[in-house]
Amino acid sequence: MSNLVFYPVVSVISIFLLGFSTFNLFKRRSIVEILLGVSVWTFIVLEIAKFSLIFELNFAQRVLGLGFCLLSIFWLITSISFLPQRLYALNRIVLSPFFAFLSLVFFFFWWIKPFFTSIATSGVIQLSKLARYFFVVGVFSLSITLSNFERSLYYLKTKYMRLLLVTAAIFLLPYIFLAVYAVIFGYITFKILLSTSLTTLAGGFLFLFLSQKEAFVSPLKEETAIHTSLVLFLIGGYLFFIGIFVKLFQLFGWNLKTLFSFLTAIFLFLVFLFLVFSSSFKERLRLFLLKNLSKQKYDWQKIWEEFTYKISLTTEWSKLKDTIEQAICKILGARFVKIFLFDENFSFEEEFSDWFIRYAEPLTLLEFMEKEFMHKYPQVYKFFKENDVDLIAP
Predict the structure, then answer these.
(1) Helix 31-54 crosses helix 190-210 at what angle (to 10 degrees)?
(2) Nearest residue to 362 (alpha-carbon basis) of 320, 330, 334
(3) Are 274 and 266 in contact (CB under 8 A)?
């Protein structure tokens, strides 16, 4: 490996460049930008693995498997967060979470037994059969990730999204080709693996520029990102602890069937507790049954009676406002509603205020961005962001 002395330098530069670039993202306290930063850190893990392989360190194979697993998981979660709401339901709800879950399952198996069985002196990394299945999942996962970013750009035509798509393509395309190569031949040549460090370095410079810009992320998208991340992290934590128990059982020579029966019982019990005590789940189930199985979806007379009774109990504007917001939430089935009262002068630009009154329709943040109003009406954009509003109505 004497002819590979150039690659450790590239890996070290990439590690410091990517680490520095993600610093700005973590400071902004936006869940989507934090996820993007964590996704970039998966390349840092992979570069550490390559550096370790060059110097033939013992833990190199495990770190490499960890990097590949995390690469599929975090980039998929991040790409979902940029997709438009109420569109591409198949990608958002089914395909992306499914392949992220499969990557978590492979992460569980990696914890028990590494994919990469041996590294020959000829510079070829031999792959187990399980590793080849993993790279099949990897091809689909990374391809769906790029597709999600491309579809986000189609609906949100901003310079940030264009740069993000180009950066993601430079980062991920070499690993898609690497995964295809691994599936076809059953091994990875050392030079092909290390050559991905060059594209990672190129993507790192682009990402350094991208990290200086603030991403446009609607509150509903952040909620989607949080929900998806929590679900996958909980499943991942569960599988991680299963891996620890399996290792302990193997170490003491105990029966693994007893272990899996025990863990399955615990899992089902936790699911039962969630269904019983989760108020949000019961509320969603109630709304679903009301909307889809009831002959009359809403008893408007009862709703009106309850509403008029509640507002008659107070004269304080703050309490009255809360009552109205709760009533609208219940009628629309929304998570939250905010009411803002203005005098004759809106806290928006005058031109936008005149247009909005004539428009006389609800306006979503996504539609606001699609009309390229962000730079034309910065006060409106500031109102959206500061108040966590996704839709405004006159």
Answers:
(1) 150
(2) 334
(3) no
> DSSP for 133-166?
HHHHHHHHHHHHHHHHHHHHHHHS--HHHHHHHH
- Residue 119's SS3 state is strand
Query: Using an 8 Å Cβ cutoff, are 78 and 35 in contact?
Result: yes
pTM of the model: 0.59
Q: Tell me how many domains the chain contains.
A: 2
- 314 and 195, same domain (yes or no): no
User: 218, 250, 280: which is the final residue of a domain?
Assistant: 218
Please state the separation of Cα 142 from the chain's center in Å.
13
The Cα 283–Cα 182 span in angstroms is 47
Asked if 316 and 192 sit in the same domain, the reply is no
Structural domain range at position 198: 2-218
Separation of alpha carbons 219 and 372, rounded Å:
19
| Residue 361 Cα distances to 16, 49, 328, 382, angstroms | 49, 54, 17, 20
How would you classify the pairing of strands 124-127 and 116-119?
antiparallel
- Would residue 233 count as lying in a domain? no
Place of tokens 């000829």: 122
Per-residue pLDDT of the chain (394 residues; tens, 9 = 90+): 445 667 788 888 988 999 888 887 777 666 777 788 888 999 999 999 888 887 777 777 778 888 888 888 888 888 887 776 656 667 767 777 778 778 777 777 776 666 665 555 567 778 888 888 888 888 888 888 888 888 777 666 667 778 888 888 899 999 999 988 888 888 888 888 888 889 999 998 988 888 877 654 444 454 555 555 555 555 555 555 666 666 666 666 666 566 666 666 666 666 656 655 555 555 565 555 555 544 445 556 666 667 676 777 667 777 777 777 777 776 666 666 777 666 555 566 666 666 666 666 677 666 666 566 666 677 777 777 766 666 666 6
Does 287 map to a domain?
Answer: no
H/E stretch holding 321 reads helix 317-332
- Tokens representing 240 are 């991680």
User: Among 349, 347, 358, 342, which Cα is nearest to 376's?
Assistant: 349
CATH code at position 179: 1.20.1070
The residue among 169, 194, 218 that closes a domain is 218
**E-assigned strands of the chain?**
116-119, 124-127, 187-189, 363-364, 391-392
